[in-house]
Amino acid sequence: MSGFSGCPGSRMVEFKDSPVGAGSEVKIPSQLRQWPIQLHLVSPEAPYYQGADVVLAADCVPFAMGNFHGDFLKGKALAIACPKLDAGQETYVEKIRSWYEDAKINTLTVMIMQVPCCRGLLATAMQALQGSKRKVPIKYVVVSLQGEVLQEEWVET
Amino acid sequence: METPLKTPIKEVINRFPPVGAILEEFGIGCVPCSVGTCLLGDVVEIHNLSPADEDDLMMRIASVVSPGQAIRRPDSERGRTAKPRKLTYSPPLKRLVDEHKLILRFIAMVPEIAGRVDLESGEGREEILAAVDFIRRYADRYHHAKEEDILFACFDPDLDILKAMHEDHRQGRACVQGVLDALERGDTDGVVENLHGYAGILTEHIKKEDEILYPWMDRNLSTHQVGELHARFQDVDGRYREVQESYEAYVEKVEKNKFIERAEVSR
Ligand SMILES: [Fe+2]
Ligand SMILES: [Fe+2]
Q1: Residue B49 lies in domain
Q2: Are B262 and B216 found together in one domain?
Q3: Whole-angstrom Cα distance, residue B79 to residue A154?
């Protein structure tokens, strides 16, 4: 693996089974309160975004994080996107700006993986804020491949 | 002292004065605090030391307060920060930190203003009134009101740290009243003394807020609360836009005057 020189976003890694909670029978309830969730499919003015605390998660984040529902999704509205593979991302800027201006969201939490290409999602949210008439606090959370929070900080605007 | 962690900090320091110096070494400035009712355990929590520093601090305090007996906070309350401290703020608290910068620029001018108090001339009296106006309308009615009415209201009003902050605000206001009373009496020394008094209190107060209080608040505010604070501050800022601009211009003018006077003196 040390000889790998390609994109760290698609580098192959295998993890050992997590000892904690492996094979546990406890059912964890979903905290999702809406549908759809993919950023191309959602309407930014949907009722569940009005005045909400919104999480914009990179597609991989909820799979990497064991506690995504309880720790980050609870009480919030959601959209997901992949800054690396999704087409037509200009519409993302417009949609996110519409969250700020029309839905008057309370906060935006951008959750990304630690791989460099994921930063693009935060850049898109910032680009939308630059042209926005209304300012909204943006927080970003960087998640490791094994689901730990590496960084959680408010963006200076 | 049976439960040092549950003892008000002033009481600990009064009974064991070396504790004050130990706290100072860790950047915890409780000695000059005017209230001092915070419990030792809460003081340690609020300063968010790294686990290693906290162990070190506790060992040294224990060696003074209860030799041979360790003092340790429960593991559930300890060590959330293993990382070195870097001061970052949520957007609403960053806004307050920026307002502090203008207040500190004004405070940096206080020695100049106090050094040339002239209560005989109309112009001299105007200069004092303009300084009082800045303190009252910008620092107090705008900035402190955002803190007291909006930010502090997110927390339990019985928290000792908040009582200490309110007390600082009150003392600042008393100094301003002192300036006005002295002006009325034509008492130059009184004006000077109260101006310096105000500068001293606010300098310490802002340091406490920037370095201790606000970071602690940010750690304890939910994402939702940060959004609400931001919206409410924006609302106030919108209403006070002209006030902000006019006081920025005032501070700039005072700074410029100082520069011009310096140039004249050196000529
Ligand atoms: Fe204050
Ligand atoms: Fe302040």
Answers
A1: 4-77
A2: yes
A3: 21
Look at B223 and A107 and tell me if their CB atoms are within 8 Å: yes
Assess whether B60 and B96 both reside in one domain. no
Q: Which of B88, B94, B226 sits opposite A107 (nearest CB)?
A: B226
Q: Within the 31-50 window of chain A, which residues sit less than 8 Å (CB to CB) from chain B?
A: none
A112 contacts: CB under 8 Å, gap ≥ 6: A58, A61, A83, A118, A119, A121, A122, A140, A141, A142, A143
- What confidence category does residue B33 fall into, taking pLDDT thresholds of 50, 70 and 90? confident
pTM of the model: 0.83
Q: What is the pLDDT of residue A4?
A: 57
Q: What count of other Cβ atoms lies within 10 Å of the Cβ of residue B127?
A: 17
Report the pLDDT value the prediction gives residue A78, as an integer from 0 to 100.
98
Q: How would residue B164 be classed by pLDDT, with cut points 50, 70 and 90?
A: very high
Length of chain B: 267
> What topology does CATH give the domain A31-154?
Rossmann fold (3.40.50)
pLDDT at residue B154, rounded to an integer: 96
Q: So what's the pLDDT on residue B82?
A: 46
Among the three residues B15, B43, B77, which one is the final residue of a domain in this structure? B77
What is the number of domains present in chain B? 2
Using a CB-CB distance cutoff of 8 angstroms, which residues of chain B are in contact with residue A75? Answer: 224
Test mutation, A107, A129, A136, chain B, max B CBs within 10 A: A107
Give the domain CATH number at B169: 1.20.120.520
The mean pLDDT of chain B is: 89
pLDDT(B41) > 60 = yes
Give the distance from CA B74 to its chain's centroid.
Answer: 29
Q: What is the ipTM of this complex?
A: 0.90
pLDDT at B84 over 60: no
Q: Check B88 against A156: CB less than 8 A apart.
A: yes
Greatest CA span in chain A, whole angstroms? 50
Q: Which of A30, A42, A37 lies closest to A74 in space, CA to CA? A: A30
